[in-house]
Design brief:
314 residues; Phosphorylase Kinase, domain 1; D-amino Acid Aminotransferase, Chain A, domain 1; 2 domains; seven-stranded antiparallel β-sheet; 16 strands
Amino acid sequence: MSEPLFESAIPGLRLLARGKVRDVWEIDERRLLFVATDRISAFDRVMQTPIPDKGRILTALTVFWLRQLSDVCPHHLLASDWEALPAAARAVGEALRGRCLVVQRLRMLPVESIVRGYLAGSAWQEYRRSGTVCGIPLPAGLRESERLPEPLWTPSTKAAAGHDENLPPAQARRLLGAHAALVERYSCELYRRAHAHALRCGIIIADTKFEFGVDERGEVVLADEVLTPDSSRFWPADAYQPGRAQESFDKQYLRDWLRGVGFAGDGPGIALPAEVVQRTREKYLLACRLLSGDDSGWSAGAPASPPAAARPAD
């Protein structure tokens, strides 16, 4: 387990933004450097305690998925190897190793592109109220966590502050304009392909969030993180049972713990106890191992093998 990184500092590069997890540095007018820190957020608040190696896990999974799915649509990744990073980043040393992506600079589109294959989270809450998800009517009698007849494109806003809000697809299409059809098609195909791969590895991807931008030629390009425990719901396939909430390999464990101590995003992020930090790290690491077959050496402090409920089916 390495020393956690809460914020990156790279003398010689200009910091453009610090997101909830990623620090974005400018390389030049066409390229950016993404640094995935170990910050973790829930309910749109960054917690005070980082999760060791989390940024490396997110980076490894994003690179894995971009390579797996590169035939579905263009993506923004230019390089991830240490030797390909700007000299200023390499000069910082080991703290940045495994955390960095050199990416295309894009004009980001104003919609979070969410695909849901199962009825969970805010989708389940809306369905219980009105029988719809993002305004889309669904068959009556579905249960919590049930697989949907077809994956649904259920976009949301990108809130500069506060919570994102679900959008009816028709409204999202108006916001996306000429790019709407491609964004929707890419998102659904990425989800279908990833869901099939994950199921073979013993994981159900219940839903996930994609982000897209437009390059200088006007082409729609997949950007940001892809199919990570921060952006997706991952469930152990052989423990799956519709009609209840599921075990998970994602941020849901942290959300549930926060609700249990009375935190729901109504103030700044709080400090996390060592047990919650360790358990969150284990879940993220296990997802990475099962999906990509690689933990890049982050084995210290994590289970030697997946628990029985999480092992891939034969």
